[in-house]
Design goal:
Blueprint (H helix, E strand, L loop, with lengths): L1 E6 L4 E20 L2 E21 L7 E18 L4 E4 L7 E20 L2 E12 L15 E12 L2
Length: 157
């Protein structure tokens, strides 16, 4: 993930970010006619705008924060192995894409290393419509939730 932002005060900042991740997923479904497991490689790109609320001032060494933001996600998934099928049940399409809105909520902390340089840890969840679940038999009703543990460096200038 790469991000850039602006501090409005010691307590409030805005941030724009681009993120990319890849996951191995198994699409599993079952109905009266049978069941299947399909290994899938899923890649997600996100572009988000977040508001961050800090609980300590910019001069403090430890600055925990909460954030919330919205933006767009693009999910691309394709089969990554042979499906396991029991009975007669229709398999989902081999490859698909989905682009839509997402909501991200996160908690994190900035740890000052020196003036203008900080270590950042964030635990984030991005929630969006679930293009994978719509392809299952029967379709699942839960939204897609993508959890991320992010470590990095933040520069202030």
């Amino acid at each position: 993930m790469i991000f850039g932002g602006r501090h409005f005060s010691d307590w409030l900042s805005a941030q724009a970010s681009y993120g990319w991740n890849r996951n191995a997923v198994v699409m599993s479904a079952g109905a009266a006619g049978g069941s299947y497991d399909v290994p899938v490689r899923a890649t997600m790109h996100t572009v988000m705008a977040d508001l961050l609320v800090y609980f300590r001032g910019r001069t403090d060494r430890l600055r925990p924060y909460l954030s919330v933001g919205t933006g767009f996600t693009n999910l691309r998934a394709s089969e990554s192995g042979a499906p396991s099928v029991a009975g007669s049940i229709a398999l989902p399409a081999g490859e698909f894409r989905s682009t839509g809105a997402g909501l991200r909520v996160a908690v994190g902390i900035d740890v000052a290393l020196s003036r203008g340089l900080a270590f950042r840890y964030t635990f984030a969840e991005t929630i969006q419509g679930n293009a994978i679940s719509r392809r299952l038999t029967p379709p699942a009703s839960r939204n897609l939730a993508n959890f991320q543990n992010l470590w990095g460096v933040a520069w202030q200038f």
